[in-house]
Amino acid sequence: MPDDEYMKQRGLDWSAAYRTLARLAASTEAALQSDPEQEQAVLDERARQLSRVATPTAAPGHLLELILFHVDEQDYALETRFVREVLRTSEQRVLLPGAPPQLRGVTLLHGEVLAVVELAPLFGRPAPTQHGPVLVLGPHRAELGLRVDHVREVLSLTRDSFLPPPAALSGQDRTLVSGITREGIIVLEGEALLGDGRLFFDLSEERVT
């Protein structure tokens, strides 16, 4: 995990990022206050997320419900139990020039700061520069935002239909992959992804003041 000195050398200005997020939060709150219907829609969405029950881990022969998405010319899939919601807009995303390649920026989600990360650097490829939707990940609460190029569909597959992870993957990268489908879709291991320290950063205001 990058330390403060590393961030300073890379020119990452956390204070500026938090000022921008504060302005976004203020404008969002003002918009909600002037639109009761939108405020109710936000409350309904929060209630839906809080009432969501995590799906038990599937046995090898049982169907897994997967969300299929595309990043950097590669199709990936992740169990839907790890995806809380999809953010389609980038209006409230703050880019962080000088940040490590896997840290794309930060965004506000229901009043909380959420890191938005890139998948490609974990597999040794440059991070794409285009914008795209964000998968909000976390089995019980929002822990991480994963920027993707496109969200394609939800599909069901059995774990024992997967081929082994590509031989080119090794070490920590290999633990992120459950397997690969015959169509070439890389199926990510949700628990390993959410446990990868390369994707988590201290976003507390105390660290940047």
Which properties best describe this structure?
single chain; 209 residues; alpha+beta; 6-stranded mixed β-sheet; 5-stranded mixed β-sheet; 5 helices; globular; disordered N terminus
What value does the average pLDDT take?
Answer: 77
| Unreliable sequence segments | 1-10, 50-56
The amount of beta strand, in percent, is 25-35%
What Rg, in angstroms, do the CA atoms define?
A: 18 Å
Number of helices: 5
Largest sheet: 6 strands, mixed
Helices and strands, in order, run as HHHEEEEEEEEEHEEH
Specify the structural class.
alpha+beta
Helix proportion range: 10-25%
Description:
- With 209 residues, the protein is of the alpha+beta class.
- Helix content is 24%, strand content 29%.
- It is built from five helices and eleven strands; from the N terminus they run H-H-H-E-E-E-E-E-E-E-E-E-H-E-E-H.
- A six-stranded mixed sheet has the order 3-7-8-6-5-4, with helices on one face.
- It is globular and about 50 Å long.
- The N terminus is likely disordered.
